Amino acid sequence: MCEKMKVLGVSCSARVNKNTADLLNLALETLRTKGLQTELIQLANFKILPCQRCDYQCLYHKERECPIEDDVPKIWKRISASDGVIYGVPVYSGTIPSLLKILFERSQALTPEERRKHPQVTGVIILGSYGHLNVLGALAPSLMYYPLSKPVGYAMAIGWEKAIEKERTRQEVIALAESVYKELMLQESKEGR
Q1: What angle do CA 109, 144, 154 make, to 5 degrees?
Q2: CA 183, CA 191: separation in Å to the nearest integer?
Q3: CA-CA-CA-CA dihedral for 74, 75, 79, 85, to nearest 10
Q4: How far from 148 is each of 107, 108, 122, 124, CA to CA, in Å?
């Protein structure tokens, strides 16, 4: 039943509890009213280190372990355990923020057991003043690679200040949440959960 399904909101902003988190919370609240479990994580609250001078243990060694000790494995575990994910992506320097880029780059260390068995319903909220299409272009390869996503749409919030107060932005975010919900219900009926 849908009350056992979970959607994770992932704020990729370097700022905690600001515009990106506000928009994600609006999407998650929309899904909670439909009976889904939700959770918000903010990447800025985690220790996330970039790939660094390793010998590609994550790709070529039998153990496939990443030698970096940080919170990235914990984050991927939470993402992988969710039925759906909505990424909140602010536009930094005309593209995705470094926290998200590092997270996706580090996904190559995931073992086949850690990858999802079916496509994960995925939505994206993009927030910024310019570079929205660059963000979509940068996200596409990563979302296709991991977590074998099934993208259902995106919402664009133009501008930075108090984006949650703009009615058009609110409607786009709610519509994205509705799309995530519909796809999850379709998946649930196909899988006979």
Answers
A1: 125
A2: 12
A3: 160
A4: 11, 12, 9, 15
Q: Are strands 6-11 and 120-128 parallel, antiparallel or unpaired?
A: unpaired
Q: Are strands 84-90 and 37-42 parallel, antiparallel or unpaired?
A: unpaired
- Helix then strand then coil, in percent of the chain rounded to 5, is 45, 20, 35
Torsion of CA 155, 160, 161, 163, to 10 degrees: 0
Distance (Å, whole) CA 150 – CA 84: 9
For residues 18 and 161, what is the distance between their CA atoms, to the nearest angstrom? 10
Cα-to-chain-centroid distance, residue 58: 22
CB 119 within 8 A of CB 149: yes
Residue 42: both structure tokens together: 């903010």
pLDDT in tens, 129-157: 888 888 988 888 877 665 567 889 999 98
Strand partners, 38: 7
At a CB cut-off of 8 Å and minimum separation 6, what does 97 contact?
Answer: 12, 13, 14, 89, 90
| Model pLDDT for residues 116-126, shown as the tens digit of each residue | 555 689 999 99
How far apart CA 96 and CA 22 sit, in angstroms, is: 18
